[in-house]
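INFO  loader      accepted 1 record
INFO  loader      residues=127
INFO  predictor   begin
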Amino acid sequence: MKLKIYAILFLMFIIPIGFYSKMYSGFGHEWVNNKAGGVFYEIFWCLVFYILLPKSKPIKIVIWVFSITCLLEFTQLLNNGFLEIIRSNFIGRTIIGSSFSWSDFLYYLIGSLVGYFILNFCEKYSK
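INFO  predictor   done
INFO  writer      dumping C-alpha cells
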C-alpha cells in the first residue's frame, strides 16, 4: 500500500507540472512546451503503470513506456483522419503529439531514466 501512496504523491506533483509545461509562456517557452514536457510525460506514464501493475519490475515498466512513447512519436508522421480527430483537442495532442522531432527521443530517455529512479525510490521506501 505504501508503494501506491508514494507513486500517487509523485503523480500529484508531476501532473500539474506537466500541464503547466504545455501552457508556460515565459522565457524559453518553446523549449519548455515542446521538449521538457516529454520528460514529465514519461515520468507520468511510468508512475501510472507502476500503480496499475505493482508486481512489475521498474525496469520493465520503464522499457515498455519508453518503447511505446517512441512508437507514438513515429505516429506523428502519419496524417490519417482518425489521428487528426484525436489531435484536434488539447488532451489528444498532449497524449499522442502533433509533430515528429528526432530530438524528442532524448527527452523521452531522460524522463524514463528519472522515472526509473522514482520507481526505485518508491520500491525502496515502501518496504
